[in-house]
Amino acid sequence: xxxxxxxxxxxxxxxxxxxxxxxxxxxxxxxxxxxxxxxxxxxxxxxxxxxxxxxxxxxxxxxxxxxxxxxxxxxxxxxxxxxxxxxxxxxxxxxxxxxxxxxxxxxxxxxxxxxxxxxxxxxxxxxxxxxxxxxxxxxxxxxxxxxxxxxxxxxxxxxxxxxxxxxxxxxxxxxxxxxxxxxxxxxxxxxxxxxxxxxxxxxxxxxxxxxxxxxxxxxxxxxxxxxxxxxxxxxxxxxxxxxxxxxxxxxxxxxxxxxxxxxxxxxxxxxxxxxxxxxxxxxxxxxxxxxxxxxxxxxxxxxxxxxxxxxxxxxxxxxxxxxxxxxxxxxxxxxxxxxxxxxxxxxxxxxxxxxxxxxxxxxxxxxxxxxxxxxxxxxxxxxxxxxxxxxxxxxxxxxxxxxxxxxxxxxxxxxxxxxxxxxxxxxxxxxxxxxxxxxxxxxxxxxxxxxxxxxxxxxxxxxxxxxxxxxxxxxxxxxxxxxxxxxxxxxxxxxxxxxxxxxxxxxxxxxxxxxxxxxxxxxxxxxxxxxxxxxxxxxxxxxxxxxxxxxxxxxxxxxxxxxxxxxxxxxxxxxxxxxxxxxxxxxxxxxxxxxxxxxxxxxxxxxxxxxxxxxxxxxxxxxxxxxxxxxxxxxxxxxxxxxxxxxxxxxxxxxxxxxxxxxxxxxxxxxxxxxxxxxxxxxxxxxxxxxxxxxxxxxxxxxxxxxxxxxxxxxxxxxxxxxxxxxxxxxxxxxxxxxxxxxxxxxxxxxxxxxxxxxxxxxxxxxxxxxxxxxxxxxxxxxxxxxxxxxxxxxxxxxxxxxxxxxxxxxxxxxxxxxxxxxxxxxxxxxxxxxxxxxxxxxxxxxxxxxxxxxxxxxxxxxxxxxxxxxxxxxxxxxxxxxxxxxxxxxxxxxxxxxxxxxxxxxxxxxxxxxxxxxxxxxxxxxxxxxxxxxxxxxxxxxxxxxxxxxxxxxxxxxxxxx
Length: 963
Prior knowledge:
By secondary structure, the protein is of the alpha+beta class.
């Protein structure tokens, strides 16, 4: 067996410093500074008439031996190129030793190497001086280039190339030798002269046949000629340059080959060679290898023609390769994109990611040419495919995840293509996997997906068995010798899979992105579903809430479904139950009543809890024209359902109900009219002694006088200065510092006394008074800010609540900005709050108004969040700086696990959207501590302070901040 040390020594041989020259020409080395000869090849005495000793020229001025060398300009030594030797019009002074010698029989190729000029002299055949021959060669080159540029297939193009080069060069055999990524080579095209058999097409050659230092030299010296393998090389005289260095022959045309290379050619049966490098983007793609069975020196015109052809071949080949690769990449990308679009569409329709992956798995594996697929995204852990699997999906994903950690986590895609190759660690839980493509995305958690490919066993035909032998030299040294046979030898290459492409990587990355997006969408859908359910249902009983009930009743009435009765139910003396048995017992009664009400519902009936002990029912009447009797019969069914005793803590309790009934269309064609009239009937039922049902009668509306009087009084409230503001602090839950105030309007009625907003704001909203009240609140809040600032008090922003009527008014933004300018108050001193339900009624208009307020420096807040119908996607688009969690969440979160989870979700959502979050209705220490522990920044409620007057607010702030 050949030792690695010998192979390494062979690979490190300095083939550019051999110090030998091919004997068909001679070489002169000149010091460019002194212009004196410092080295010649020993063969100069064979070619220079009358010269017997090569050493005679050493130290002599170049001008004594060579004619035509200028002291400056393009024909001077200073103008020589440092790479490809250039033909120079210089002539040897043979007359120095042989006066009768002709001067035209030699060409000079010259280049420089540092401070040296290297002049190589080659004999010129008679054909080179024949004008007709030169024209024929030029026409051949032009025709060859034209044919090659029109080639439309790569294999045909290569075949045409070698055919043209063989005819043009006159060599017996011409091949294109392509270098593979692993350094090995493959003959991709071969053309032979008549009578010469093709031997090497399709064969592969090991990388050691052309070691790395040779490939490096081929990038430097692109055209190389060996005139005669059997010719004895000339040595350099003297062997070293002045100073002891060896001559660098990297660009020398006459450079001889190493003994190993010469033996290699002899074993192939080659006598003369010409090789030309094919270079793409500065890299050695391959080479033209021209072999001849007799000594051969191609003239200058042939060499130049071949150089041009090779440059053109490189240009056309790279164009064809890129074109074919692009076509293949586009085909693969289209196939993968079709698959990905199908997966995406399916996952959008089907909520189960794993089930959708199961459905698409055959197409997915076929598109990736894979045998296994796996993904880990959030709670999704999935592995599938026909490849052999050991253990569970979790085992597989843990192993893949560990392998991913060993790679660069910043990389989005990693590949392995030889997991089963010797020395590589395969996948223990996917033992048949030979290749792995892994896409990852690191966010809050590491998400990844992967595909695997099986082993692909490739049968490789080698040009002879790729091994070398040893040869012992006369001096006792051992040298590697090339193989003697180049007959085809087949070998199976194992441990590799089909190579991954950029298209594969991009598609897998896109698939991971799709799954992540679908997973997030499903999480959001679940959260929205919970929020939607909570927004439409009563949390205690699970029945519809007021809003949902009103919407459904309104929908039915809009389509003319009047064969029904609307019942409002109120539990008589329910407060006594709470006072006697506690609120937990009261809640249990409410739940039991809800179940009994639900038990009498038929398919099209509806029941809702409106709040407290008030319920609303919509019950279908079996005949098309309902009357009071039919309504009372339905109510009696309700009474019968509620009549049985209720059990509380082992005690039985009787619960009675009062019911008010409104029947469409006589009592109203919309839900508002029916509710109002059913409420009037319920009021009369209670007034008549409770535990009974009453159908609305028109005379009941006379009781509405009070409402009209209230509306009349509201009309004068602003003018008579009966309105005032109360302020409730907003407190930082960490520092316990007050960070803002909410302004709440109060009505100081001359007869009724101080009225809370709930007693008159609904009436104001149903009239045209609400905008006037809003404008009064804005002016009062801004004026208060101005007074506090003039008094030097700490500036705390005041939040004001605006109605939908004011939001929709034409001049809200201008009015508020004018107020701020009038009182010289900065915009950050005022905040505007709008309720979620109001916002969703006119979303686009509200969005534009809030955006305009923001642009003027006024921050905006979404009030009562969680009770409306806004979706997360809408919320993200709105110009909001703050969310206020509705107090219903705060009131129930410590007793209701679902309410607690939803409150956490709203907190996380607000903070993720970089909004400030305020919890409303904080009434207990436990609520405040829970909110603080879960990251809620600000709280507001009776725990800190009830709303107080303008004169009492700063003492109240001092108490809060004093702790």
